[in-house]
Amino acid sequence: MRPKLVVGNWKMNGSRAANASLLAGIVAGLDNANATCAVCVPAPYLQQCADTLAGGKLAWGAQDVSVHASGAYTGEVAASMLADFGCSYVIVGHSERRAYHGETDQVVAQKTLAALNAGLTPIVCVGETLEQREAGQTNVVVGRQLSAVLELLDVDAAARIVVAYEPVWAIGTGKTATPAMAQEVHAQLRSQLRERSAAAGERVAILYGGSMKPDNAAELMGQGDIDGGLIGGAALKAADFLAIIGAAA
Ligand code: PEP
Predict the structure, then answer these.
(1) Ligand 1 centre from 25 Cα, in Å?
(2) How far apart are the first and last CA of the chain?
(3) Average pLDDT in the 99-121 region?
């Protein structure tokens, strides 16, 4: 069985003072955690994470990465820079990046490769809009999004990613996919990974994200192909984030 992974996506929230208190609250409750846990924070706060969390049980990461290694790309952050700050993870292809910054499946694939080349674990987000779900396109959309990534990776690299299924209509809306709906998509993603290689099918964690909260986390993470959660709003309160981590049996 794959170990559970619970990752907080802070999005564009935080301040040095608020982060200090949130991180201290999370760390104080992690002693008995069975899951692997991480927070993905705004880039300016990576140093604060490195200072506060080094050597502990809570890993940290970023929310985006450049496809480029270095050079004249104003405002971009390279994967090697994230590694320099001790990041373990980076989220790529979040639906907010796809929707507001025009990231295509191909760009997401290149970001995934850049992260892997720097020794980071990319958390590759896939998910359908409400319109796509209602048109019966869910499996086609998430299948295409994952395929673009797998096509760019060799067999070894494909087994080193994390996938997050995040139905766009469930993000920040309070609407959650039912455990059965989520499991159905996760099972499809699992077979797609298995087709790429047995190792990818076996090792890659597939997280669910989209209004995961303390009261629905256990049921979602109890599904056979749901290996943890990518948590937005509920990751900003230590008690809620810890309750979700506690629900990851
Ligand atoms: C997210 O944005 O990755 C997310 C899952 O958000 P929320 O938990 O707030 O729906």
Answers:
(1) 20
(2) 11
(3) 98
